[in-house]
Specification:
The complex is a heterodimer of chains A (about 425) and B (about 325). Chain A has about 425 residues and is of the alpha/beta class. Helix content of chain A is about 30%, strand content about 25%. Chain A has twelve helices and 19 strands. In chain A, helix 1 crosses helix 2, helix 2 packs parallel to helix 3 and helix 7 (about 215-230) runs parallel beside helix 8 (about 245-255). With about 325 residues, chain B is of the alpha/beta class. In chain B, strands 7-6-5-8-9 form a five-stranded parallel beta sheet. Chain B has a four-stranded parallel beta sheet with strand order 2-1-3-4. The longest helix of chain B has 19 residues, at about 290-310. Chain B starts with a helix and ends in a 5-residue tail after the last helix. The chains are: A alpha/beta (about 425), B alpha/beta (about 325). The interface of A and B includes residues 208, 320 and 325 of A.
Chain lengths: ~425, ~325
């Protein structure tokens, strides 16, 4: 290409290319030019001037897309900033993240959306796409200027952290957002049923004397919102599905052909409320870790495509905030850098799905349901690429996180599947250190 | 330590009865026996804990538990300090972990903690080298209350094993209920719970108890009723419509007890709402052991303090005689 400078081209060769968006799974090479995929296929010659990356022994896949992260800036910079969050994302193999607007102040006007975007670009990590608040001040009363937010770069609206409780407002949101072609992203919880709970309702909560959040608090809200989506034709995206009853509601929505999509977190695919025993605040998260039956149901739903994607709900918290009485500790798990390993352990290792299908749920499906041009290695697509070693076993060491926070209930766990390198727009933004 | 030796040691802390072997509970109750007599003396003091400093750290209002602990500590010769701070540590500004570090820095020997958050006693115990005794944490456990309940039942009926004990009332919010369930089951009793379903927590059956939806059935089944206080807040929060109706449907009344096939012993951890969960003629009647519970409370707490301080159960008789160990 005329004018192409030295270094603009990249040749990733010898890897196993797994791109479910094109049905690819085999040894192939990749040529990247000016930040986009130029060619893909077996036996491509190294272009003149191209730098090369030897991917032999590794899986080459479209970069992961996380539709649900909390980067805490502005207002919670001691937990995470947009810069540290974006670096944590690429360390986890994510090339695009959607940030939730529940900061302090919340991202509810165009200037705030612009701030997140600008800080995201400056971070030189994953692409940071802001979700705007659905209601002013996230108070659940008055709709934000959604057109203005979208104009400034918002990709969706949500009051996540809290649900849009008012059914009338939810209806209007599902109607109004259709002008802009963006989804309403809902933290599905009937607050009156959650009733100040701090963990899953059930025998563990009863033995520990902790207030429980019943499964139905989530499923009832999903049922309501699915009906509102049916009424309005609006796109509802359901956050962090955690219960078997929720899966039933989503299955019904799918069978009716509604515009309802959903996500599940890596932790809800493996961990249960047993982890809370001993008042382990690292396992305090909302929605709470449920029972083995729920884990099985959400796993199966992800395999079947009833749940569309994996999203981390990355929720960093300062260590001091987690070192409190259980009732007073904040909800949340730091998820970006453990996501791939945790999903390998939950889904691929026990044989529930192939690596290819996992890559689909982490990279291709998010792009598909949200209409993004990434999540694929087709020629012309942004060169957002991750190099993975599915065989490597590694140890979760929170002190080595790129995230500013360390809150994870799986510190010290051995996980299969390691992110070796992450490229955003053809630029290497993360490379794993070689083990000694 | 061998299993037998372990069962005869309380370890560093008493944060709950869950998982405690029956043998250990029996040892605590047996150790309490000689201490009962000390409180009957004109001079109610033995020097077992002389030179020990104990902090009674109460984050929730409490009268009887705090006083009972304080008597137990003083009658064993310890130096005590009471810290009362209503509300959570967070609203007070200092975190519980900072409170713990400050106590540790003052080189105290034991902490008795009452706190509104479940798990708070364990939280403290994990962070300081001093012995920690749970005097009630949220809705989790209140182990010394259950121990004194068991001692009182044993005094009255001569045994615990094989008895049927039903806890009646607000199970969901009750730390007394949980400690009773764990302790009584470890000693081989059958345990039931009875109350409106709105006050019986989901999954309670998994703790090995039978749920009775009607108080009449519970009374027909049980040898012992442990009647819990119904707090006024439960009505305001919509768990039950009114205290009057609660008494009508779930109150332990003379008329209901008279229909029982056997004499049922009645306990209440106090403070009582007469005419709500229990009628006065029951509370003051011959089946009630409510005042012996209070007396036993001091003895049980003396036993726990003595054992955590390293006292050996077989030497409790000597300790009672005031001999130096």
């Amino acid at each position: 290409m005329s004018g192409a400078r030295r270094g603009d081209r990249l040749w990733i060769h010898g890897g196993r290319v797994v791109d479910p968006s094109q049905g690819l799974d085999g040894t192939a090479d990749l040529i990247i030019e000016r930040g986009r995929v130029a060619a893909i296929g077996p036996g491509l010659d190294r272009p003149e001037d191209a730098r090369s990356i030897d991917a032999s022994g590794l899986v080459v896949a479209p970069g992961f897309i996380d539709l649900h992260v909390h980067f805490r800036e502005p207002g919670g910079e001691h937990k995470e900033t947009i810069a540290t969050g974006a670096r944590a994302a690429v360390a986890g193999g994510f090339t695009t993240v959607w940030t939730m607007p529940n900061t302090d102040p919340p991202i509810d006007d165009p200037a705030a959306v612009g701030f997140v975007r600008t800080a995201g670009v400056a971070a030189c990590g994953a692409r940071v796409m802001p979700i705007g608040a659905a209601s002013i001040g996230m108070k659940g009363e008055q709709m934000t200027e959604i057109g203005e937010l979208v104009g400034a770069g918002a990709v969706a609206v949500s009051d996540d952290g809290a649900p849009v409780g008012n059914a009338g407002l939810m209806r209007r949101l599902l109607e109004y957002t259709q002008t802009f072609g963006i989804p309403v992203v809902q933290h599905s919880e009937v607050v009156e049923l959650a009733a100040g709970g701090v963990m899953n309702e059930g025998s563990v909560a009863t033995a520990l004397g902790l207030r429980g959040i019943p499964n139905v608090a989530e499923a009832a809200m999903i049922a309501r919102d699915a009906l509102l989506s049916e009424l309005t034709g609006g796109h509802l995206h359901v956050c962090h599905v955690s219960t078997r009853e929720s899966v039933e509601q989503l299955r019904l929505a799918r069978d009716k052909g509604l515009r309802v999509t959903s996500e599940v977190t890596p932790h809800h695919l493996l961990l249960t409320d047993e982890l809370v025993r001993g008042y382990n605040t690292e396992a305090k998260v909302n929605p709470p870790l449920r029972t083995a039956r729920d884990v099985e149901a959400v796993r199966q739903a992800l395999v079947d495509g009833v749940i569309d994607v994996i999203a981390t709900d990355h929720a960093p918290h300062h260590y001091e905030e987690k070192e409190r009485e259980f009732d007073d500790a904040p909800f949340g798990i730091n998820g970006l850098e453990t996501a791939f390993g945790l999903c390998m352990k939950a889904l691929v290792e026990p044989g529930h799905m192939s690596v290819a299908r996992l890559i689909d749920r982490m990279a291709c499906a998010p792009a598909r349901i949200m209409g993004l041009d990434s999540g694929t290695l087709r020629p012309g697509a942004p060169a957002d690429v991750v190099l993975l070693d599915p065989e490597e076993i590694w140890t979760v060491e929170p002190e080595r996180f790129a995230s500013r926070s360390r809150n994870t209930p799986i510190a010290g766990w051995r996980l299969p599947g390691r992110v070796r390198r992450t490229l955003v727009g053809g630029e290497t933004r993360y490379e794993a250190e070689e083990e000694r | 330590m061998t299993a037998a030796a372990e069962a005869r040691s309380l370890g560093k802390d008493l944060t709950g009865l869950e998982g405690m072997p029956g043998e250990t509970i029996r040892m605590i109750l047996d150790t309490a026996e000689p201490f009962k007599e000390i409180s009957e003396r004109p001079i109610k003091k033995v020097p077992v804990l002389r030179g020990k400093t104990i902090v009674n750290l109460f984050f929730e209002p409490s009268t009887r538990t705090r006083i009972s602990f304080e008597f137990a500590e003083k009658r064993l010769g310890a130096d005590t300090v009471n810290i009362s701070s209503v509300g959570s540590s967070v609203s007070k500004g200092e975190t519980l972990v900072d409170t713990a570090r400050n106590l540790e820095a003052m080189r105290i020997d034991m902490v008795v903690i009452r706190h509104g958050s479940s798990g708070a006693a364990r939280f403290l115990a994990d962070r300081i080298p001093s012995n920690v005794i749970n005097a009630g944490d949220g809705r989790h456990e209140h182990p010394t209350q259950a121990l004194l309940d068991m001692l009182t039942i044993r005094d009255r009926l001569g045994k615990i094993e094989g008895l049927r004990v039903c806890v009646v009332g607000d199970i969901v919010h009750s730390r007394v209920a949980r400690s009773n369930i764990f302790g009584l089951r470890a000693l081989g009793a059958e345990v039931g719970v009875c109350g409106p379903r709105s006050l019986v927590p989901v999954g309670i059956e998994d703790l090995g108890v039978t749920v009775f939806p009607h108080v009449e059935e519970a009374i027909e089944w049980a040898d012992v009723l442990n009647v819990l206080r119904l707090q006024l807040e439960r009505m305001n929060a919509g768990y039950v419509p009114s205290l009057r109706e609660y008494n009508r449907v779930f109150g332990v009344t003379r008329a209901r007890l008279e229909r029982a096939p056997r004499e049922v012993v009645v306990l209440h951890p106090g403070p009582m709402n007469r005419g709500v969960e229990i009628d006065s003629d029951v509370a003051d009647g011959p089946q009630s052991v409510i005042l012996p519970q209070v007396t036993n409370g001091v003895a049980v707490r003396m036993a726990v303090l003595y054992l955590l301080a390293g006292g050996r159960p077989e030497l409790a008789e000597d300790a009672k005689r005031g001999e130096e160990r």
